[in-house]
From TrEMBL:
PANTHER family: PEROXIDE STRESS-ACTIVATED HISTIDINE KINASE MAK3, SENSOR HISTIDINE KINASE. GO terms for molecular function: kinase activity. PROSITE patterns: HIS_KIN, PAC. Gene3D superfamilies: 1.10.287.130, Histidine kinase-like ATPase, C-terminal domain (3.30.565.10), PAS domain (3.30.450.20). Signal peptide: none annotated. InterPro entries: HATPase_C_sf, HATPase_dom, His_kinase_dom, HisK_dim/P_dom, HisK_dim/P_sf, PAS-assoc_C, PAS-like_dom_sf, Sig_transdc_His_kin-like_C. Residues 96-148 form the PAC domain. This is histidine kinase. Residues 186-391 form the Histidine kinase domain. It catalyses: ATP + protein L-histidine = ADP + protein N-phospho-L-histidine. SMART domains: HATPase_c (SM00387), HisKA (SM00388).
Length: 391
C-alpha cells in the first residue's frame, strides 16, 4: 500500500495515492506548493531529510509559524520572500542553481542547491511552485577546508620567505662585522702606530715653525690624520667585546644633557635646530659614553636628512615595559627596503660616507641588551631606542 504524507496532506495537495510513492521515493529532493505564496510546502523523503522534518512534512518560511532556521545566500541572510520557491511563485519565473546555506539553532549546517519553477494554469496564473534540491554540504565544506588549507600554506610560505630574507640580511651583517673585526685587529697596530708617529713629527715641525706658509698645511694634515684615527676607532668599536663594556646605573637625562650643547652647535652651523624634550625617567645600566655616541650619530644623521630650517627632536620616555629615547627628523623618509638594511656595515644611501655610523649605533645597542627600531614616512624618520625594564 502506498505511503501517504503526514496528517493526510496528500488530500490537501490533491496528490493521488498511486503517485505518492513516485514523489516520495525520488532520489533527489522534491518540494511542491499549491499556492503562489508558498504558505505550505510539502517535501518528499530526500528533501525532508535535508530540512530535518518528517517525510512529507511542511517546511516553509512563508507559513504562519516559519521554521527556526536561518538561510543564507552568498553569506547574506534571506527573508521569506527572498527564498527561491517564493520568488518563483511571485514573479512566475524559473529560479536556477541557487545555493543556500541553512543554519539551525543547534549549530547544524546544511548546504544545498535549488531549482524552482512556477506551476501555471492555461491563463498564465501561478497555481503553485515545484522545486528540486540536492544536498552539497560535504562537497562545499571540503572545498572550504581545501581553500583554508591553501591560504594557510600560502601565508606560511610568505612568512617563511620573509624570515629567510631577514635571515639573509642578518647573516650579511654578521659576515661584515666578522670581516671588520679581523681588519680592526691588524689595523689597530699596523696603521695607528705610524699615524701617531707622523702626527707627532708634524706637531714638532709646527712648533719649530709656528708661523709661515706651511702653518695652515700642518693643521690640515693633522686634522686629516685625526679623522683617519677616528675612523679606525669606529672599526674597533664594532669589533669590541661585550666583556669590555664598563656600565653603571646612569640616567639618560644626565648623560644626554652633557652632549646637547655640542649637538645644538652642530645644528646651528647647518641652519637647523635640535630640540631636547627632557623627562624624569629611571636610570638604566649603560656605558654613558657609548650611549652618548649613539645619540650623536642619530642626531647628526637626522641633521643630514632634514631640509634647511628643519628640526630634530630628542625625547625621553618610559612605559610599563621599557625606558628609552627617540630621535625624530624631518627628512623625506626611507623606503621599506632601506629600513630593513639599516645597521649593516658599509650600507649607506649617502653620496659619501662609510655606512659605519648606524652600524656602530646598532652594535652598541645590541651589546647593551637594548632594542632599536626605525619608523619612516613622508614626514621624516623616527629612531626609538628602548631598554627593557627589570622583571
Amino acid at each position: 500500500m502506498a505511503r501517504q504524507p503526514a496528517d493526510g496532506q496528500a488530500d490537501a495537495f490533491n496528490i493521488p495515492s498511486k503517485y505518492w510513492d513516485i514523489f516520495n521515493e525520488s532520489p533527489g529532493g522534491v518540494s511542491i506548493a499549491t499556492d503562489p505564496l508558498c504558505k505550505i510546502i510539502l517535501h518528499n523523503r530526500k528533501a525532508s531529510r535535508m530540512l530535518r522534518v518528517s517525510s512529507g512534512g511542511d517546511f516553509s518560511h512563508s507559513s504562519v509559524h516559519p521554521p527556526k532556521v536561518t538561510v543564507y545566500r552568498n553569506r547574506i541572510e534571506l527573508s521569506a520572500g527572498e527564498m527561491p520557491m517564493q520568488r518563483s511563485g511571485r514573479r512566475k519565473v524559473d529560479v536556477l542553481d541557487e545555493v543556500l546555506e541553512f543554519v539551525w539553532e543547534d549549530g547544524h549546517r546544511m548546504i544545498s542547491v535549488w531549482n524552482a519553477t512556477p506551476i501555471l494554469n492555461g491563463e498564465g496564473d501561478a497555481l503553485g511552485v515545484l522545486a528540486v534540491s540536492e544536498d552539497i554540504t560535504d562537497f562545499v565544506l571540503q572545498e572550504r577546508r581545501m581553500q583554508a588549507d591553501k591560504e594557510f600554506f600560502e601565508n606560511l610560505a610568505a612568512e617563511r620567505k620573509e624570515e629567510q630574507a631577514k635571515l639573509r640580511i642578518e647573516l650579511e651583517r654578521l659576515d661584515r662585522l666578522n670581516l671588520i673585526a679581523q681588519m680592526a685587529a691588524s689595523i689597530s697596530h699596523e696603521v695607528r702606530n705610524p699615524i701617531a708617529t707622523v702626527r707627532g713629527f708634524l706637531q714638532l715641525m709646527h712648533q719649530l715653525q709656528p708661523t709661515g706658509q706651511l702653518s695652515a698645511h700642518y693643521e690640515l694634515i693633522v686634522g686629516e690624520l685625526d679623522r683617519a684615527n677616528a675612523m679606525i676607532g669606529n672599526f674597533l668599536s664594532l669589533s669590541k667585546s661585550p666583556a669590555a663594556d664598563h656600565r653603571e646605573r646612569t640616567g639618560l637625562l644626565e648623560a644626554f644633557n652633557a652632549v646637547m650643547p655640542l649637538l645644538e652647535a652642530d645644528a646651528l652651523m647647518t641652519g637647523k635646530k635640535v630640540t631636547f624634550e627632557p623627562a624624569a625617567v629611571p636610570p638604566v645600566d649603560m656605558n654613558a659614553r657609548e650611549m652618548q655616541q649613539v645619540l650623536i650619530n642619530l642626531v647628526r644623521n637626522g641633521l643630514e636628512a632634514s631640509p634647511p630650517g628643519g628640526e630634530i627632536r630628542v625625547g625621553l620616555f618610559e612605559d610599563s615595559h621599557a625606558v628609552g629615547f627617540t630621535v625624530r627628523d624631518e627628512g623625506e623618509g626611507m623606503p621599506p627596503d632601506v629600513l630593513e638594511r639599516l645597521g649593516i656595515p658599509f650600507f649607506t644611501t649617502k653620496g659619501s660616507g662609510t655606512g659605519l655610523g648606524l652600524s656602530i649605533c646598532y652594535e652598541i645597542i645590541r651589546r647593551h641588551g637594548a632594542h632599536i627600531k626605525a619608523e619612516s614616512g613622508s614626514g621624516g624618520t623616527t629612531f626609538t631606542v628602548s631598554f627593557p625594564k627589570d622583571a
